[in-house]
Write a structure and sequence with these properties.
Length: about 525
């Protein structure tokens, strides 16, 4: 009896500890210190998910202790779910509705403006620096795609949230799902109840890891072009950047780095303003005749991926909407954030391309005069290095949860010891992931190609294909004809763009990989 009591008290104490940590992370997120880029927004959503999990874990431990006194039955092995720290199976007797209600009590909420700040940071990250390069190969059609992608991503974000709700027996619309994974699993049930979630997790991991690679690539590229006279190659700069990033493998939480995210975001907005100001100072020399209606058939599909990747935010929208004080304001928030993003991205891409025309480079700051290029690029490198831990940590969390901490369904032994410390081989795997991002950055040091590939593969899938497919699958009986038409059109157009962009980006990467291997 004493042993059982100590075990229960230990579970409750552990849950309370994680709960307090999640609250701190959530507090930083609401203040704007998180979600500075697309990946940082994923980090914000992930912290909210952990907050919800730990609240449920705490209450379920209490329910378990109460149920034990009444002689509750032991849960079946297949029904056991584990907390994030791997301690304590949760009883299936407590209903999901009760857990959701209990987890929502006292949970801090954010306003529509705070939610809009997070969405804005997600779709206005440093990857907008590649948009002028998209205009180079797409002309006016590239500008049209910037507007089109904003409209589609805004719409798919709304229908994705609609998939979280269903009508109950009383005719009331209630929230029955909590995340993108829940929606995917619901679409694949009952035959394959976990297949959809695994697909979404794989897509999320690919996008997060590719984002880490992009940060290493852009760091090496910016430093090499800032100091071309130094006897240091771009690959060497990438190695130096990775050496600085290696301590990310030891991260236990994001509190150590999330406080810098606001400063990074503000610095990035200042850099965008500086670039636009410089372009406006050369307005007399703008090459309007260079903006054409024709497209580069071979490279334009890559531009599609670049544009789509700059708008990715769907993966964290369910968590964000669930934390809003008034979820009814979500649609309005999505409208003004995407309108603002569309205007700012379009103006930035256009004026930058008009300034440098055919000389526009993959990262637009490389076109700046050497007198100010070094200063601007150093700020961007600092932002990239400080942003890297967030997608890296989110990718590690997803990998550990799905491969090492998924109870009896885990593929490998738990990478955490009984005291909650990371095992040595688990730390080795984290270091290997950092090294993998370096190797990819060395062998394929092409920012636009990697960004286009990621946008075409996971960006189009998470933003275009899956939301429209899930909307049709879950709510097709209640949809009006024009909603069905929009969903089918988005799925078809998104699929064509995704396949085309993926093929051309992959061809470019293979060619670049062969060239580097020969060198």
């Amino acid at each position: 009896m004493a042993t059982l009591l100590r075990s229960k008290l230990s579970n409750v104490a552990t849950s309370v500890s994680h709960k307090s940590q999640a609250k701190m992370s959530g507090m930083f997120a609401r203040m704007g210190f998180q979600a500075a880029t697309d990946e940082e927004a994923v980090g914000f959503a992930h912290c909210d998910d952990l907050d919800m999990e730990h609240r449920q874990g705490l209450q379920m431990d209490i329910l378990k202790s109460e149920g034990g006194e009444e002689g509750a039955e032991t849960p079946l092995e297949g029904d056991i779910h584990y907390q994030r720290d791997g301690t304590g199976p949760l009883p299936p007797s407590a209903s999901k509705e009760a857990c959701s209600e209990l987890s929502g009590q006292g949970k801090p909420k954010i306003t529509a403006w705070e939610a809009g700040w997070n969405v804005t940071n997600a779709i206005q990250g440093m990857f907008v620096l590649g948009l002028p390069y998209a205009i180079l190969h797409g002309g006016y059609l590239g500008l049209f795609l910037i507007i089109f992608a904003a409209v589609v991503c805004c719409y798919t974000g709304k229908i994705l949230i609609a998939c979280l709700y269903e009508e109950n027996e009383d005719g009331e619309i209630v929230r029955v799902r909590d995340s993108y994974v829940d929606i995917a699993n619901a679409c694949c049930a009952p035959r394959f109840p976990t297949l959809g979630g695994r697909i979404v997790n794989v897509a999320q991991i690919i996008e997060l890891v590719m984002t880490c690679i992009l940060y290493v690539v852009v760091s090496g590229n910016l430093m090499y072009n800032s100091f071309p006279n130094l006897p240091v190659s771009q690959k060497s700069w990438s190695i130096i950047a990775t050496a600085v990033l290696l301590p990310c493998a030891f991260l236990k939480n994001l509190k150590a780095v999330s406080k810098f995210s606001l400063l990074c975001t503000l610095a990035h907005f200042v850099i965008n303003i500086l670039v636009i100001a410089y372009c406006l100072s050369r307005a007399r020399d703008w090459a309007w005749d260079k903006v054409k209606f024709y497209i580069d058939v071979k490279k334009f599909p890559i531009s599609i991926g670049i544009i789509v990747f700059s708008y990715t935010s769907q993966i964290f929208l369910p968590s964000l909407e669930g934390n809003m004080q008034n979820p009814k304001e979500f649609h309005c928030m999505m409208n003004w954030t995407h309108i603002a993003a569309c205007i700012l991205k379009g103006l930035f891409a256009l004026v930058a391309y008009l300034t440098w025309a055919d000389e526009t480079k993959e990262v637009i700051t490389d076109n700046l005069p050497s007198t100010i290029r070094a200063v601007v690029n150093i700020f961007l490198v600092a932002k990239a290095l400080l942003s890297y831990p967030l997608p890296f940590f989110a990718a590690v969390e997803v990998l550990e949860r799905s491969l090492f901490q998924d109870g009896n369904r885990a593929f490998f032994p738990n990478c955490y010891g009984g005291d909650g410390r990371l095992k040595s081989w688990g730390l080795t795997l984290r270091c290997a992931l950092v090294v993998f991002t370096l190797l990819m950055a060395i062998y394929v040091p092409h920012f636009a190609l990697l960004m286009g590939l990621t946008g075409s593969l996971t960006g189009a899938g998470l933003c275009f294909l899956l939301p429209s497919l899930f909307h049709l699958k879950l709510l097709w009986r209640k949809l009006l004809w024009h909603h069905v038409f929009f969903d089918v059109a988005i799925f078809v157009i998104g699929g064509i763009c995704s396949i085309s962009g993926f093929i051309h980006s992959l061809e470019g990467l293979i060619e670049a990989f062969r060239t580097n291997a020969e060198d």
